[in-house]
Amino acid sequence: MTTTTTRTWTIAIPAPIRMKSANEREHHMVVAKDRRAWRETAYGWTALAKLPRGLRRIHVDVELRFTSAGRRDAHNYYSAVVKPCIDALTPEKRVKTKTGYRVERGWGVIPDDTAEYLDLSAPRIGPVVPKGAHPYGLVVLTVTDLTETEQP
Description:
ASCH domain-containing protein; CATH 3.30.1330.70; globular; 2 helices; five-stranded mixed β-sheet; alpha/beta
């Protein structure tokens, strides 16, 4: 008889900077710098959690935890916060710039963040976290391996 097991990992990513909504208008260079900060931080915490590399398909639940209660639309944080965190789950990329190349770090959990490899639920707002412990808040990713693994 065989049974199937589901592997799940939870990564709590302390916000490296204030979580910014898509409603905020900033210069594109500031936005790019902020996204890099998020991707680097998510990469570091993914590596620390030792997530496996080369999975065929995953599901990711995203929970945004702020330091204060208030009305927020979780979808507004997708481009500036959620997307860079998801990008950190894909392989490292070399990107051509005007002066050469830069490396966008990635752990390689999945080959790409397309629907073929990633099932991403809508982000949701979680419980408030203490500002002393997490000055800018926390992003919690729950990663579930959707690849069926048979065990004897």
